[in-house]
Design a protein that fits this description.
The protein has about 325 residues and is of the alpha/beta class. About 35% of the residues lie in helices and about 15% in strands. The chain contains eleven helices and ten strands. The strands form two sheets. Strands 3-4-5-6-7-8-9-10 form an eight-stranded parallel sheet, with helices on one face. A two-stranded antiparallel ribbon has the order 1-2. The longest helix has 19 residues. The radius of gyration is 18 Å and the shape is globular. Bound molecules: NADP nicotinamide-adenine-dinucleotide phosphate (NAP). NADP nicotinamide-adenine-dinucleotide phosphate binds next to helix 10.
Length: about 325
């Protein structure tokens, strides 16, 4: 495993880290046994950063993460999120009282006295125009309940606005072979301000592993079934917002670029790591096989200029018209 600095936090985080959404819920059946095994395998391979949220399985993901953290001696940084428990989910709800309540709950679930990193969980755009929200996060930080805070955003413009607040340490954004716009405007700005970047949905919800097909079935409680058209939350979170059939066709073209001994999932993760503004990539893993395959992507040699150009070409031709100006 290799490590990169996360913004100004002073932490060095594993280039390939762990996304803990699927081990909480919304991805069909998932046993805690498999989830714990996946987490342990990732940590054994040098992963030291886990991204979770208070709403993943209504706390189930946070509690599983707490369980494995208790077993280990080495430092493991845990990023959680706050805001999505609000109902209705409005900008007004992002205030000191509510944020404090969410933090208290995550402190319990994560069995700790101070949260490492709390991210606003894709709040309404208006939140980024309310300095008082960031003031509230400063107050919670001063109380010693959180060490650092950051944001998880849907759109590039939200990311650009968020980093104007000086204590925002990290931005989590969708960035993958099917979502390239963040690299244009936002990455240089984040680097300039020394803000960490967490690249989420790196496998486009599994599409970029190359294992999915027209015949793939998804359970009714898997967002790849129930959010295919953005019925429950932003459609960009499911298959990266790419129409399934178009995605499958592009995957066939990408498959030709996979080096011997590697997998498409590994190539997809290694491609993201070619961007030095990225602090880490946070693929979800549901079992030890996926956790190992993903962690070992850090060992792959970098992509050649030719490979980078080809990936870009596939994006420009098939994907860009569908996604580029939407997020
Ligand atoms: N709003 C937000 O802030 C937000 C939204 C989305 C995600 N996130 C974070 O970002 C993380 C990553 O995004 P994601 O989990 O949505 O999508 P992802 O990482 O692109 O895809 C993860 C899924 O792909 C499959 N997979 C993983 N590794 C694989 C491998 N090596 N080979 C084959 N299949 C593999 C697994 O599902 P199957 O085995 O079922 O196919 C896994 O659940 C999340 O876990 C979460 O921490 C945050």
């Amino acid at each position: 495993m290799k490590y990169r600095p996360l913004g100004r936090t002073g932490w060095d985080v594993s280039e390939v880290s762990f996304g803990a959404w699927a081990i909480g819920g919304s991805w069909g059946q998932q046993s805690d046994e498999d989830s714990l095994a996946a987490l342990r395998k990732a940590l054994d391979l040098g992963v030291n950063f886990i991204d979770t949220a208070d709403v993943y399985g209504d706390g189930r993901s946070e509690r599983l993460v707490a369980q494995v953290r208790r077993e280990r001696r080495e430092p493991i940084y845990v990023a959680t999120k706050a805001g999505r428990r609000l109902s209705p989910h409005t900008a007004d709800g992002y205030n000191f009282e509510n944020l404090s309540k969410f933090v208290e709950r995550s402190l319990k679930n994560l069995a700790t006295e101070c949260l490492d990193l709390v991210q606003l969980h894709c709040p309404p755009t208006d939140v980024y125009y309310r300095p008082e929200v960031f003031g509230a996060l400063d107050r919670v930080t001063e109380q010693g309940k959180i060490r650092f805070y950051g944001v998880s955003v849907e759109r590039v413009e939200e990311a650009l606005k968020a980093v104007e607040f000086p204590n925002v340490q990290s931005v989590q954004i969708i960035f993958n072979m099917f979502r390239m716009r963040p690299a244009e405007l936002f990455f240089p700005e984040a680097k300039r301000r020394k803000v960490g970047i967490l690249a989420r949905v790196p496998l486009a919800s599994g599409l970029l592993s190359g294992k999915l097909s027209q015949q793939s079935q998804f359970a009714v409680d898997d967002h790849r079934n129930f959010n295919r058209h953005g019925e429950a939350f932003d459609v960009g979170e499911t298959f990266s917002g790419v129409d399934y059939e178009t995605g499958l066709a592009a995957v066939e073209a990408l498959r030709l670029l996979v080096p011997q001994g590697a997998t498409l999932a590994q190539l997809a993760l290694r491609w993201i790591l070619m961007f030095d503004a990225v602090s880490c990539v946070i693929p979800g893993a549901r079992n030890t096989k996926q956790a190992e395959e993903n962690a070992r992507a850090a060992e792959l040699p970098g992509l050649s200029e030719g490979q980078m150009g080809k990936v870009r070409e596939i994006y420009e031709g098939e994907i860009r018209p569908l996604v580029h100006q939407r997020w």
